[in-house]
Design brief:
This protein has 254 residues and is α+β, with helices and mostly antiparallel strands. Helix content is 32%, strand content 32%. The chain has 7 helices and 14 strands. The strands form 4 sheets. A 6-stranded antiparallel beta sheet has the order 5-4-12-7-8-9, with no helix packed on it. The protein has a 3-stranded antiparallel beta sheet with strand order 3-14-13. β7 and β8 form a beta hairpin. α6 packs across α7.
Length: 254
C-alpha cells in the first residue's frame, strides 16, 4: 500500500495496522451486487459443472485404480538376564557399547540368513496373480489352482509369467513367452508339465463345476532366491527405536 507521499506502508498508517470501521464494512458489503454474481454464475455454469465433474472423476479414478500399499510393524525388546544391566557391565557399560550391540542385532535381522528363513516359512517362491484391465491383483489362498513340485531348469524362466486359462475342472491352457515366441498348450490338472526349461504340475482348487471366475487373466511366477531377497530387503525397515529401552522397530511395506 502506498501513501500520498509515494512511500510503501504495507497496510499501515503511522506504523499501526489499518482498521476499517463498521460503516466502511457496511459500504463494502453494499457494493456486492448479488444479482450480478448470480448472472456470472449462470453464464459460466457449464464450465463450473465441467470442472466439478473432472475433479470428482479424477478422484474416483485415483482411488479406484491406485494400487493399495500396506505396512505392518512391530517393536522388539532385547531380553536381558543376570546382573550385568544393573551393574553396568558388558554391553551395558556405556551407551555406545549398547548402541553397537543393537546395531549388530539390526544387521542380523536384515541378513540373508534371516530373509531366507522368512522366504522358506512363508512359501514366497511362487506368487499368484490375476491381471485386470489396468492393475494386477496378487492372490494368496483364493486362486483356482496351485503349483506343485516346481523345478526351474533354465534360469531364464525365473520370474517369468505363466498364464493359466481354466477350461473346466479337469483342464487348463498354459501360455508363456520365451525369446520373442509365445507357447500355448493344453494340460490336465495333476498332469506333469515337463519341458527342457522347467517342470511342475498344477492342482485345481475348483469344485465339481467351474464357477464364474472374475474377469482377468490368471498367472503365476516362480521367483528366484535373489529376487526375493532383494524384494524383502528393499521393503524392510529395521532401526533402533530406543537405546536405553533396548528396543528395535521392524516394519515391512508392500
Amino acid at each position: 500500500m502506498y501513501s500520498e507521499n509515494g512511500k510503501y506502508t504495507n497496510g499501515q498508517a503511522n506504523g499501526k495496522p489499518l482498521q476499517l470501521s463498521e460503516e466502511e464494512d457496511t459500504d463494502l458489503l453494499s457494493q456486492l451486487d448479488l444479482g450480478k454474481l448470480l448472472l456470472v454464475v449462470q453464464k459460466n455454469l457449464t464450465w463450473i459443472l465441467l470442472i466439478f465433474a473432472v475433479c470428482v472423476g479424477t478422484s474416483f479414478v485415483y482411488l479406484r485404480y491406485t494400487e493399495a500399499i500396506f505396512e505392518a510393524g512391530s517393536t522388539l525388546q532385547m531380553e536381558v538376564s543376570g546382573s550385568e544391566p544393573s551393574m553396568g557391565l558388558g554391553i551395558f557399560k556405556t551407551e555406545n557399547t549398547l548402541n553397537e550391540y543393537l546395531l549388530g542385532e539390526v544387521q542380523m535381522l536384515r541378513s540373508k540368513v534371516v530373509l531366507d528363513e522368512v522366504i522358506k516359512n512363508l512359501q514366497l517362491e511362487i506368487a499368484y496373480y490375476r491381471k485386470g484391465r489396468i492393475l494386477y491383483e496378487e492372490k494368496f489362498f483364493n486362486n483356482p489352482f496351485k503349483v506343485e513340485a516346481p523345478e526351474i531348469l533354465n534360469p531364464d524362466f525365473y520370474d517369468t509369467q505363466f498364464f493359466v486359462e481354466v477350461i473346466d475342472t479337469t483342464r487348463y491352457e498354459l501360455t508363456y513367452d520365451y525369446q520373442g515366441e509365445t507357447f500355448t498348450q493344453e494340460y490336465r490338472f495333476g498332469q506333469a508339465v515337463a519341458t527342457p526349461h522347467f517342470r511342475f504340475q498344477l492342482a485345481t482348487n475348483l469344485s465339481k463345476s467351474v464357477p464364474d471366475l472374475p474377469a482377468g487373466d490368471y498367472y503365476f511366477t516362480i521367483h528366484s532366491q535373489d529376487w526375493l531377497q532383494n524384494y524383502l530387503a528393499a521393503n524392510l525397515t529395521v532401526a533402533i527405536a530406543d537405546i536405553k529401552a533396548r528396543t528395535i522397530v521392524v516394519s515391512f511395506r508392500d
